[in-house]
Amino acid sequence: MTVSPHRDLGTLFKAYDVRGVVPDELDEDLARSIGAAFAEWSGVDAVAIGRDCRLSSPSLAAALSEGITSRGTDVIDIGLASTDLLYFTSGARSVAGIMLTASHNPPEYNGMKFCLPGARPVGQGTGLDEIRDLAERSAFAPGAATGTARREEMLEAYVEHVLSFVDVSAMRPLSVVADTANGMGGLVVPPVFERLPMTLVHLYPELDGTFPNHPANPIDPENQRDLKRELLSRTADVGLAFDGDADRVFLVDEHADGVSGSEVTALVATAMLERHPGAGIVYNLICSWAVPEVIREHGGEPIRTRVGHSFIKQVMADTGAVFGGEHSGHYYFRENYRADSGLIAAVVVLERLSRSSEPLSAVLAPFKRYHDSGEINSRVDDQDAKIEELAAAYEDGRPDRTDGLTVEFEDWWFNVRPSNTEPLLRLNVEAKTKERLEEKTSELLEQIRPEGGPT
Questions:
Q1: Which one of the listed residues 56, 57, 65, 103 is annotated catalytic?
Q2: How do 412-418 and 405-408 pair as beta strands?
Q3: pLDDT digit string, tens, across residues 103-149
Q4: For residues 132 and 24, what is the distance between their CA atoms, to the nearest angstrom?
Q5: Are residues 292 and 304 in contact, defined by beta-carbon separation less than 8 angstroms?
Q6: Calpha distance 140→64 (Å, rounded)
Q7: CA–CA distance, 354 with 170 (Å, rounded to integer)
């Protein structure tokens, strides 16, 4: 079978993964071709396949497996999995991996995340373009040799691995509400919490690829509404919101106030530096000024990088950093094969909270030093031109072109970055006072959206 000529795989293949609507953009024929292309490109002996609970995942996984084995490559089928469970399998078994998931996207979507043995990321510039080209050019046909496919259960080993990041005996009986939004957190959260001396209230634990209760996208505060209501009604200590493939986590404190990714990064960094004094900690450039400050105060080395998992993981590999955090809820651990895991980050936070007699808001208070806008998206047709316009307008600041444009001043900073996949410009602003934040955010948006342009 061949890929239909009208298909534009350039839009299906994103910066870090494959993602599209099923079956219009992604179907079994294409999954088969992508599987064969990945096997050819990687040259590995075996590929682990995990899948989320979307309705299209079983048939796409079967086609993907057929494509991989058609090139003489073996398949390890780990079945339903969170993305970090797939990465753990890749690292623990030293095999390549493909995770079938569309993360937080609506039910009609599906996609694939790829890694090489040791959970090494595959993205633009590290193989994804070549995989796309092979899938586009090649007609699918069985190869000379056929690999085998076998089922392997990895959940129990994964749970042991997650718990190895904390001292379970130091945990106290906290009350935790977790909303897994009918996604893959429903598979991995319960067996971890069964081993902890905590009360777990689990919202929407059923694996249901139609996501009937709310979208599995916790970055949208609207999708945290049920979690916050339940937390307040039960006077719980912590709320945890996982996305669809459970590689990201968002925290809510005892007042039902959201916790920023920068605050989680700073808190987890302190825990990692206790275990690894003087180590390097990676943070991306839209994290708060507080993050590098906290890292230095605890004897660590702050290492700044671009936004995006492939950059974080590569810098961690190059520097030996023990931990990396992103403002978007991704947290990476060297002992987790430098892969991200929302659940590992969550248990580390719970251990830190267990060691304190104070509530989470008080534990986080030392890291709440500045005021931030959060990420604000604006539709801009020519992002590069707009960035240059802003560079000229703020030339009296300290510019940095590491990722888009960052300009720092004594009491505030901003970053603007183009989206990889849409005509959007992403703005983040931070300031020492709320008044300065509001003033500068409004000022920037007036320039980015002349005449009140669209968001």
A1: 103
A2: antiparallel
A3: 999 999 999 999 999 999 998 889 999 999 999 886 666 666 799 99
A4: 17
A5: yes
A6: 12
A7: 7
pLDDT value of residue 368: 96
Q: How many residues does the structure list for the chain?
A: 455
CA distances from 65 to 33, 79, 110 (A): 10, 12, 16
- DSSP-derived pairing of the beta strands 175-179 and 238-242: parallel
Q: What's the rounded Cα separation, in Å, for the pair 107 and 120? A: 28
Distance CA 392, CA 228 (A): 43
Q: What are phi and psi of 449, to 5 degrees?
A: -120, 75
Place of tokens 């200590």: 237
Per DSSP (E only), the strands in 277-318 are: 280-284, 301-305
Instruction: Give the 3-state secondary structure of residue 163.
Output: helix
Q: Which of 256, 257, 290 is nearest to 369 (CA)?
A: 290
Q: What is the DSSP letter of 143?
A: -
CB-based contact 307:326 (threshold 8 Å): yes
CA 83 to chain centre: 9
Question: Is 103 a residue of the active site?
Answer: yes
What span, in angstroms and rounded, lies between the C-alpha atoms of 271 and 26?
Answer: 42
DSSP string for residues in 180-207: -TTSTHHHHHHHHHTTSSSEEEEES-S-
Tokens of 374: 């959060």
pTM for the complete prediction?
A: 0.94
